[in-house]
Design brief:
- α1 runs antiparallel to α2.
- With 640 residues, the chain is mainly beta.
- The termini are far apart.
- The strands form 11 sheets. Strands 33, 35, 37, 40, 42, 43, 45, 46 and 47 form a 9-stranded mixed β-sheet that branches. Strands 6, 8, 9, 10, 12 and 13 form a 6-stranded mixed β-sheet that branches.
- The chain folds into 5 domains: 123 residues, Immunoglobulin-like; 103 residues, Immunoglobulins (Immunoglobulin-like), CATH 2.60.40; 100 residues, Immunoglobulins (Immunoglobulin-like, Sandwich), CATH 2.60.40; 192 residues, Macroglobulin (MG2) domain (Immunoglobulin-like, Sandwich); 68 residues, no CATH class.
- 10% of the residues lie in helices and 46% in strands.
- It contains 2 helices and 47 strands.
- β26 and β27 form a beta hairpin.
């Protein structure tokens, strides 16, 4: 270092001799802090915790200042800008005797504020951590080191699921498992440790197998333990599961689950006798055997057949088998209508489990046959007919045969049988009679449209009469005006004049009202006839409908023809007639009718014609049934 004098008017400039001055670097202080942040706001909430919970996001900050530097919160620079230490920082973490270098190769570079923050610290494992930071120094600051002690406590755990059968069988292996989860999601190690199962205060013996899953930002860490155990007593048992915890996860215990082990049971069922004839009864006896000599067995029985619950049944009887094990027996009597499985359900009780069994009951159903007439039943069309049908047994067993009829009989006829039940015994045949009776003819009712049309026609008739009356009244009024006065009393003349004027007003008004609108359709009359009253099936027949309207407007449009009230065809009017030539396929008695559709000037109308007889042959089916055995016979019916 030298000094220089610039001189003045008296003295010349001069320089001092050089002097050597040595500036030593000052001591430095390295400070470590652990910033903590609010997960909802992101704001820093502290920087000097003594402990954190496993899974807490962690960052490490290292500040370097002079000898008087201290930690503050909220954090502040420990050095003045442009005078802050420079260089690199090495950072390591030691836990459970193992040290991990957190800084990259060459260390972290201090920024202009003399500090560095590591936000990429991995999830810290549970235990006592000792962070160490080393500053190498620079030309102004000496090297220094700093340490920070931090304890990571285990993360809380909770039971997710405990699975134990609610009513296991005594003496049989039972599978149970429990799953414990971390209470929060975070990237964490898979839990280790043990899970123990307890019956009350006694740990259940056996080997527990495990399955664990690490945590992530979307899924919680979990540990599942499985145990196979055996219960030796009945009654309530309080089962709990306990997790031991590990360095990262805390211990946890489940709430108690109540189960009630039961003694096993077996069911047997017999039918006495095993085979019966239709109409006979049999006894079904069920026996439930428990796997214990005590306590006595209770509970209820339900017997089921093909048609559901079998009513009745004696009260259950307690007993023991040859080994001294408890038994419970019940019997029900039933009359099955056909062969079937009969099952029993035992309800169980507080000590014994439920059970069930089934037995097959064989029912012999007497067979039979139906014999109809060998020749067709001849009926004059429109007249009733009947014929006998034999019911022939196939054995000497007694039985009842239900008989009914159906099929495509003659149209317009109804069928019935009498008697509807034929009782057979000792191999003797029975008889029922088939009756065919003609139905009343089908007559179509007048439609609402036709009724309204008739009312409208009546109204027009009244207006027409009023119109005519108004003309007569006007003539009468003129006659009164000019008739010699001496021929009529004055009061009579005034009265008659008033009546004439009223009739004239009403008549003209009605005429004016009617004349101002569209034309009103006028009534029509329709008749229908057939070219023949009796025809053979599939032969041609012609139906002719004639529609008569007013003289001023000939009817137009179409006519539909109906047989037995059902649509059979249609035809357009030609002149005032519509003709339909067709064939009728099915034998029977048909009521012929026709309906005229009407047009803008003519109302619709309906005609009822004569009955049409269609001859030919068809079949009526006779059905006989005993239990689930059914037979049929066809009776040919010929209308002539």
């Amino acid at each position: 270092m030298t000094a220089h004098y610039s001189g003045n008017g008296t003295y010349k400039p001069s320089d001092s001799a050089p002097v050597t001055v040595t500036v030593a670097s000052e001591p430095s202080t390295t400070l470590i802090t652990i910033p903590l942040f609010n997960p909802n706001t992101g704001n820093e909430t502290g920087n000097t915790p003594s402990s954190i919970v496993y899974g807490t996001p962690t960052a490490v900050r290292v500040d370097v200042g002079n000898a008087s530097a201290k930690t503050t919160f909220p954090p502040q620079l420990v050095c003045a800008p442009l005078t802050c230490p420079t260089g690199n920082i090495t950072l390591s973490d030691s836990v459970s005797g193992a040290s991990t270098v957190l800084s990259p190769s060459g260390g972290f570079l201090l920024n202009s504020g003399g500090y560095v923050i590591d936000y990429n610290v991995a999830t810290l494992p549970g235990g006592a951590h000792q962070f160490s930071a080393g500053y190498a120094g620079d030309s102004s600051y000496k090297s220094s080191t700093g340490t920070y002690a931090l304890t990571v406590t285990p993360a809380p755990m909770q039971l997710y699921y405990l699975s134990v059968p609610s009513a296991p069988l005594v003496g049989t292996l039972v599978n149970m498992y429990a799953t414990f989860n971390a209470t929060n999601t975070f990237p964490g190690a898979a839990p280790t440790g043990t899970i123990s199962f307890y019956d009350g205060g006694t740990q259940l013996p056996g080997t527990v197998t495990y399955n664990n899953q690490p945590g992530s930002t979307n899924f919680v860490a979990s540990l599942t333990g499985n145990l196979t155990a055996t219960f030796t007593t009945v009654g309530p048992h309080q089962i709990t599961a306990k997790y031991s915890g590990d360095a990262n996860y805390a211990t946890a215990t489940s709430t108690a689950m109540t189960i009630s082990p039961l003694y096993s049971t077996t069911a047997s069922e017999i039918a006495n006798p095993t085979t019966i004839n239709l109409g006979q009864s049999l006894n079904i006896t069920a026996t439930i055997t428990g796997a214990s000599q005590t306590p006595p067995m209770t509970g209820t029985f339900q017997f089921f057949g093909a048609n559901g619950l079998i009513p009745g049944g004696a009260a259950a009887t307690q007993g023991t088998d040859a080994n001294g094990n408890q038994t419970l027996t019940a019997t029900v009597s039933t009359t099955p209508q056909y062969s079937q499985w009969i099952s029993v359900n035992y309800s169980g009780d507080v000590n014994y489990t439920f059970a069930g069994a089934q037995v097959f009951a064989n029912v012999n159903i007497p067979d039979f046959s139906l014999n109809g007439p060998s020749t067709p039943l001849l009926i004059t069309a429109g007249m009733p007919g009947s014929v006998a049908v034999s019911v022939v047994p196939a054995s000497n067993l007694a039985s009842s045969v239900s008989v009914s009829c159906g099929g495509s009989g003659p149209v317009g006829y109804s069928c019935s049988v009498s008697p509807t039940t034929v009782n057979l015994s000792n191999g003797v045949s029975g008889t029922t009679t088939l009756f065919l009776n003609p139905n009343p003819p089908v007559v179509s009712a007048m439609s609402l449209r036709e009724s309204i049309a008739h009312l409208a026609a009546g109204a027009r008739s009244v207006r027409e009469n009023l119109r005519k009356g108004s003309l007569i009244a006007g003539f009468g009024l003129l006659l009164l005006l000019f008739w010699p006065a001496r021929r009529f009393d004055g009061r009579l003349k005034v009265g008659l004049a008033t009546a004439c004027i009223c009739c004239f007003i009403v008549g003209c008004g009605g005429s004016s009202s009617a004349g101002g609108g569209p034309p009103v359709p006028l009534p029509t009359t329709t008749t229908v006839q057939s070219s023949a009253s009796k025809i053979a099936s599939q032969s041609s027949v012609t139906f002719t409908a004639t529609v008569t309207g007013s003289a001023s407007s000939a009817p137009t449009g179409s006519v539909i023809f109906l047989l037995a009230g059902s649509y059979f065809g249609s035809a357009n009017l030609v002149g005032n007639s519509a003709t339909l030539t067709t064939q009728v396929a099915l034998p029977g008695i048909y009521a012929l009718s026709a309906q005229y559709s009407g047009d803008s000037l003519n109302q619709s109308s309906t005609a009822i014609g004569q009955n049409l007889s269609v001859t030919g042959s068809t079949q009526v089916q006779i059905q006989g049934q005993t239990s689930n055995v059914t037979h049929f016979v066809n009776v040919t019916v010929t209308l002539q």
